[in-house]
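Lecture 7 notes: from sequence to structure.

We start with a single chain of 391 residues. Read the sequence below before looking at the structure.
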Amino acid sequence: MFLESSGDDGDMKNIENIFSQIDAVDHRTVKNPLKHKIRISGELFCSTSIFILLEHVKYIMQNNLRNFELKIVINTKYIADEATLIVFEILLYYLIKNSICDITYTFIIDKTLLGYENFRASNLFQYNTRKINNNNFVKTFEKETQICRNHFRKLCVNNEENKVGIFLSILLSDITTFLSAYNIEKEYAEDLSEVITEIVGNSLEHSDGDCLLDIKIVVDNVHKYKNINVTTITISDILIGSNIKQYIGDTNRSSYSPRNEIVLTAYDNHRSQFSKNYDINTFSTISAFQKYVTTRKNSIGSGGTGLTTLIKQLKNKAREDYCYVLSGDDVIYFKEPFLDLTEEGLIGFNNDNDYLSKIPSPEIVGKNLNRFNGTIYNLSFILDERNEENE
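Now the structure, written as tokens:
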């Protein structure tokens, strides 16, 4: 069923940190020690739903519960995005690995919506309404590479060898090959592969966690479109802006690139406008997207096209898109017209594209209701096949 790589399979690094700063809460509808039933209802299965489940799993682990049944019923119309499904899969994996229990989950969602087709393409679909086979679930999750029809998934292990060179080159080639099987324009496939590889490379270089990459493609031949969903998840205490924040507070900056001084200039201008929705952590997150800023000591900074510029190129060719990055509780939505770099390689995420003196737009940069202990990129593009046919 799967094409597997020859690499070693194993646990996702730092997975236990997903419960950092999560309260332990018993969310059972009926207090039966041998049966735990959790019901998620409403319009949307989203991060709020996930945090309810995280709280309950932490309650299970904190109380060292064993030999029980867990039934999760998700009765919502929509699934928010792919990241929601993958984090759900991660917490199930963690519970299976660290407890003794039987788990059943049931998704009751609108089958006419796109989110259902993405659910069908996921590893979760095979156990919907069925008791999980724990051994098989764990083996599938721990496969380093999975390619199954319209689903590409890779657990990118965070080690020194994978941070540079051949690993990222092979990953880029593998992604491009996978995308080409779906008749995606060559230039688009190459640009998307470059974006994904850059995100994975940054995740491995600037965190201490593995990066779980998931790509799904749903083709609708009736309405003539393709939906491409790309999600990366890294669980780590080191967030996108963590090293920038450390640089700001460092009393000895002599070993950093002189280009980083623009961060200090911007910080002096921004900090008087800090609030509960925009603080030093949020500032540090947007500062990490400035083209020449680097937190590596003794580095002269790097060039490149710029991640936001590449994402803009992908968005411009899509009928619709939904793209964001969440790091901790800081979120940036990748929307027009907030993706251009200035000639100096700066991006302000505001109407004036002014990083140095103006804070970002609150509709683009802000705080999420729930804090995720790590970083999630979620990129979703709907491509109109009719454009391809007419080329």
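Residues 1-8, 297-304 have pLDDT under 50 and may be disordered. Keep this in mind for problem set 3.
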